Amino acid sequence: MSRISLSGIFPPIPTPFKADEGIDYKHLQSNLDRWNQEPLAGYVVGGSNGEFVFLTVEERVEVVRAARQAIPRDRLLIAGSGMESTRETIDLTRRMAQAGADVAILVTPSYYKSRMNVAALEHHYSQVADASPIPVMLYSVPANTGLDLPAQAVIALATHPNIIGLKDSGGDITKIGFMAQETRNADFQIVAGSAGFFLAALGVGAVGCVPALGNIAGGKLAQLLECFKRGDIAGARAIQLPLIEANTAVTARFGVPGLKAAMDMLGYYGGPVRSPLLPLSEADIVELRRVLIKVGLPIH
Amino acid sequence: MSRISLSGIFPPIPTPFKADEGIDYKHLQSNLDRWNQEPLAGYVVGGSNGEFVFLTVEERVEVVRAARQAIPRDRLLIAGSGMESTRETIDLTRRMAQAGADVAILVTPSYYKSRMNVAALEHHYSQVADASPIPVMLYSVPANTGLDLPAQAVIALATHPNIIGLKDSGGDITKIGFMAQETRNADFQIVAGSAGFFLAALGVGAVGCVPALGNIAGGKLAQLLECFKRGDIAGARAIQLPLIEANTAVTARFGVPGLKAAMDMLGYYGGPVRSPLLPLSEADIVELRRVLIKVGLPIH
Amino acid sequence: MSRISLSGIFPPIPTPFKADEGIDYKHLQSNLDRWNQEPLAGYVVGGSNGEFVFLTVEERVEVVRAARQAIPRDRLLIAGSGMESTRETIDLTRRMAQAGADVAILVTPSYYKSRMNVAALEHHYSQVADASPIPVMLYSVPANTGLDLPAQAVIALATHPNIIGLKDSGGDITKIGFMAQETRNADFQIVAGSAGFFLAALGVGAVGCVPALGNIAGGKLAQLLECFKRGDIAGARAIQLPLIEANTAVTARFGVPGLKAAMDMLGYYGGPVRSPLLPLSEADIVELRRVLIKVGLPIH
Amino acid sequence: MSRISLSGIFPPIPTPFKADEGIDYKHLQSNLDRWNQEPLAGYVVGGSNGEFVFLTVEERVEVVRAARQAIPRDRLLIAGSGMESTRETIDLTRRMAQAGADVAILVTPSYYKSRMNVAALEHHYSQVADASPIPVMLYSVPANTGLDLPAQAVIALATHPNIIGLKDSGGDITKIGFMAQETRNADFQIVAGSAGFFLAALGVGAVGCVPALGNIAGGKLAQLLECFKRGDIAGARAIQLPLIEANTAVTARFGVPGLKAAMDMLGYYGGPVRSPLLPLSEADIVELRRVLIKVGLPIH
Fold first, then answer.
1. What is the strand order of the sheet A136-140 is part of?
2. Separation in Å, CA C253 to CA B31, C11, C256, D113
3. For residue C186, what are the domain limits?
């Protein structure tokens, strides 16, 4: 079996909605057509930026199926298939494989967080990886789940033959470095879950990035990676540092509504979010525009 | 329209599973038959203790429908119908009404917690309450969701004619008192979301309780409420204080697996939990048994 | 040795400063003269509201000595003598006894919070209690220290003959009830560290209160306690609930600057705070005034 | 005035105590004599690893004075002079300058954390920097203080002519990168406050490190810095990654007692900690030894 590489930029794409909150498949395709012109290694479909928690299971599968039509085979389609229960996660992961996903990415179950200890998480992920017809990635995003996947669980799971990596959105760079060290002999790849610490993560052993910012600045992030690979740290830093503020704007600060608004400003289709997310206020849009202009993005 | 009273004890019942994790409707009924002998005012079906996040939408509705068959009309059936999206919450709430629920209880959406500000939460709950054919309750459970429903949102929503109350599982008694004060002129009732602070909550204006402990010690909690109502604080305290340790055992400490194990010890059907929850270890079972015996529960 | 009662209201008095931030002993006395007219059981001197962390050790002792001159013998003077190190805490506690303190109150050491486990805290408090010529109280105030004194440590320390109680400012009412239950056979008294949860704490076994609000509304709080003692819960609640907002204003919301501003509004001497605390803004003062008027305090 | 460089490794040295907890000046000197053989750029004296919160003000000054005798003029002596109050911080900073400190490092005041907003912190640090005869550094260590110095305050203070840098022990690498970007035109240097994220911090613009681990592995850390400076990222990473576990052992995991125990194992004088810190248990010592051997340190 040829090894799947997670090196590169994999934007976690938003799910486009129409005014009535129905899924807008036409704009899903037009966005992908444009992203396909960018130097991206693939896409995460149905992740946190895809508002997966607002989609029915059917919708989650359909969005992946539709995205696959627009994504060339030489770009990875990484599908979010995490659910709270192990049995439903297994079921959805299988369906995602049938719908054309190359890899499944599995957010931590988190509702019963006080019981989600290392043993429970290891058991969950092992069961799903055993049952999955496609390779799986772990996914830790404490800002959303309130749960930080423990390093100890990651290190143990890295030896599973069907678990190929981790998307770490927590950004604790000491922890990332520790996991890189402890999994160095395993077939396991770490990707940064946000552009804010991409260079730092590369420095300690990560190989790629799944950045919300990649939806609007994928070219810059691919360039950062190239600089790093050829040992040009100064060059990589010159790209990284100015992007932090813009990255924060489309993540922690303004969230998915901010990312979608930024896409609208940059010629993609962002469109509405599903409720209870609210669209940005006028003042927030002004501020977002200022930040994007500051970083040199081609705002309309 | 006659006002619905939330005074009394409303255990949030677990969903019984068979060995294969399928729903065990027979034991759902037998448990309810026994609880119906206890001095309870009703039940929460499909709440956090019901492992609702592990059930499909269909299962959630079916469990409510089945429970209704076993719950007499003079006891309230409060059905958990919260989803992350407003549209799905509305849909499920309507289905719960059709399935026989008297009241819907709506956990806070929480995945995009940084965006779940007062405006977003007010909008979400207002939309659902407008659309619901049955009265709704707010539900704040930060230990699971990582989000504490802000007092300001509760106070504003209390004036909605179809929002009748709040289940507060956070247990910040200062906040509960403040909300009781600020909603005193509204048709709005607060219930404690855990038996650990039941007496304290009554003291500052709550009227009832939705306690995990109510599944195994409903009689004692009903007695506590009676003491309080007739002004016998010393009597109420004599019941309350020894119960705290047992309550913690079946909530924060051992979670739903602990509650189900306790039910097995006490002649109810607890049975397995769904994965990724794990059953208690042998050592934990010994400790749980010790705590339950200490409080005088009739362990087999 | 006659047992010291912690039943009653014990305001933690602010340390008055002159415009140059020097201690204003004249106004310390005039404030105490007025408080002595109120139905208070005593005072905490050099606590969190006394800005003790901004005082030198010499100043801390001198303020206690001066306060003792103005405090009648039948009112308790409880002096804050906590330091980070055990040796300095012992030394200061002895000096406080010589300066006239009846009881010493000892904030948790907290700088090395990851090492302040149950064993370390038990050792610290035991050493100090052994060495102290006067009875000592434990003091947990996580909003300031970032450390919540574990119930397990409190329960163990409650049996020490020279440890007479706990001031709990964390306000976790379930924990307070649990500690009351587990220390019921010890000579140990719990007092609420804030007026916001005073009634709730009484309900689960606390006997008194050390409330910032007691500096400006001591009479109301004493009345609340009287209602509770005679079984008039409705009366106690009618006092408690409206006070929560005012209490929050002079604690969590506006802090010591808010308390001092409120004192200035009510005919006491509040005066400046020491830097880095800043005085309230004009807008905050307007808001504070509104809250105090709402609760019926006699604002000038 | 020649600019002071913070490039290099600056161990925050422990304060050696005798068995009776008195300061052991002899071993302070012998430790420094040995560190002076290592490729270090200077020392932080009286920082968190120096147990400064357990020292009297007199002791803090005396330790700096004694250390200065043993520290050659071409190595920086950075003295911890932070206190909770602005006035005492100013006073102590002046005394540290007289005692021979080259730079003062100022931990955030944190007791009244809810009031320590950007305005209060800017005011505090500006006042101290104005009054200080020597350059000052900001110091953010949320694991101890519970307060993370906001980026906005750092960026504003970076323009002050007497504020030369920041020691960041929080380790949020996105924040560090953002501050580096926003202060790029100021005369301001960022140093990593822990060896765990040293390489990552260098990658985003930091220039040095104040690592507890530098007390026992200063040579390795200096080598890491050299690799980085000459563009050898792979070499730097090969040093960085294995050190993370050892670094965690002498910081987050075992704290100052762990650092002192490690020093004892490596031929320095570690000695006892002051109470309420407790010495390591036997089991912890075994584990610490294992970790240090794993990383190749020359354990006796």
1. A8-9, A208-209, A189-192, A163-168, A136-140, A103-107, A76-80, A42-45, A12-13
2. 47, 18, 10, 12
3. 8-230
Q: Which residues of D touch A201 (CB under 8 A)?
A: 200
Nearest to D109 by CA among D88, D135, D83, D91: D83
Touching status, chains A and C (3+ beta-carbon pairs under 8 Å)? no
Rounded-to-integer distance, Cα D300 and Cα D292, Å: 11
- Does residue B159 form part of some domain? yes
| Residues C259-291: tens digit of each pLDDT | 999 999 999 999 999 999 999 999 999 999 999
The string of pLDDT tens digits covering residues A241-289 is 999 999 999 999 999 999 999 999 999 999 999 999 999 999 999 999 9
Burial of D15 (0-12, 13-18, 19+ CB in 10 A): buried
State chain A's mean pLDDT as an integer: 97
Q: Supply the pTM of this predicted model.
A: 0.97
Name the residue among D139, D73, D71 with its Cα closest to residue D106. D139
CB D75 within 8 A of CB D112: no
The mean of the pLDDT values for chain C is: 97
* 3 state DSSP class of B17: strand
User: Cβ separation of D144 and C119 shorter than 8 Å?
Assistant: no
Q: Which tokens is B182 given?
A: 């600020």
C to B contact (≥3 Cβ pairs closer than 8 Å): yes
Of B56, B112, B276, the CB nearest to A86: B276
pLDDT tens digits for range B166-209: 999 999 999 999 999 999 999 999 999 999 999 999 999 999 99
Candidate from B85, B121, B275 with C-beta closest to A124:
B275
* Spatial distance between the Cα atoms of B137 and B130, rounded to a whole number of angstroms: 13
Contacts of A127 in chain B (CB under 8 A): 275
Confidence of residue D224 (pLDDT cuts 50, 70, 90): very high
Predicted local distance difference test score (pLDDT) of residue A107: 98
3-state SS class at D42 = strand
Cα-Cα-Cα-Cα torsion C64, C66, C70, C71, nearest 10 degrees, comes to 20
Nearest to D112 by CA among D70, D152, D84, D149: D84
Q: CB-side exposure of C39: number of CA atoms within 13 Å?
A: 11
pLDDT in tens, C110-125: 999 999 999 999 999 9
Indicate whether A277 belongs to any domain.
no
- Provide the CATH number for the domain around residue A58: 3.20.20.70
Give a yes or no: residue C275 inside a domain: no
Residue D42 lies in a domain: yes
Contact A254, A34 (CB under 8 A): no
**b/e code C223-246 from CB counts within 10 Å (16+ = b):** bbbebbeeeebeebbebbbbbbbb
% of chain A beyond a pLDDT of 70? 99
Q: CB of B274 within 8 A of CB of B54?
A: yes
pLDDT, residue B300, reads 75
Q: Are B93 and B132 in contact (CB under 8 A)?
A: yes
Contact flag D205-A241 (C-beta cutoff 8 Å): yes
* Number of domains, chain A: 1
What pLDDT is attached to residue C3? 82
Using the predicted structure, report yes or no on whether residue D238 has a pLDDT greater than 80: yes
